[in-house]
Amino acid sequence: MREFGESYAQGERVSLLREVRTGSQIHEIGTRARVLADHGPVVALHLDGASAEVVTCPTDYIARTTDRVARAPVPRAA
Fold first, then answer.
1. How remote is the C-alpha of 24 from its chain's centroid?
2. pLDDT tens digits along 28-72
3. DSSP result, the chain
4. Measured distance CA(71)–CA(6) in Å, rounded
5. What SS3 state is found at 22?
6. What are phi and psi of 70, to 5 degrees?
7. Angstrom distance (rounded) from CA 12 to CA 33
8. What pTM was computed for the model?
9. CB 3.0 to 4.6 Å from 44: which of 19, 25, 37, 67, for a disulfide?
10. Do residues 39 and 57 make contact, with C-beta atoms less than 8 angstroms apart?
């Protein structure tokens, strides 16, 4: 989804909000990707994972992702 009309930057991390079908493959909701190009209503993505490929999809099919903060291990009581 476009957030406040902002475009996606090249290299930005996003995730799929809907399934994207390409030929015989279906890329699931939550698949992570990097933006290759933002063409207004359509965005070109490089999908992550074993079935990585370049796809185009509508901008309302993706959302920005935030990097998770690593948590420190909790010390065990003696």
1. 20
2. 999 999 999 999 999 999 998 776 789 999 999 999 987 665 566
3. --STTPPPPTT-EEEESS-EEETTEEEPTT-EEEEEEE-SSEEEEEE-STT--EEEEEGGGEEE--PPPPPPPPPPP-
4. 31
5. strand
6. -70, 135
7. 8
8. 0.74
9. 37
10. no
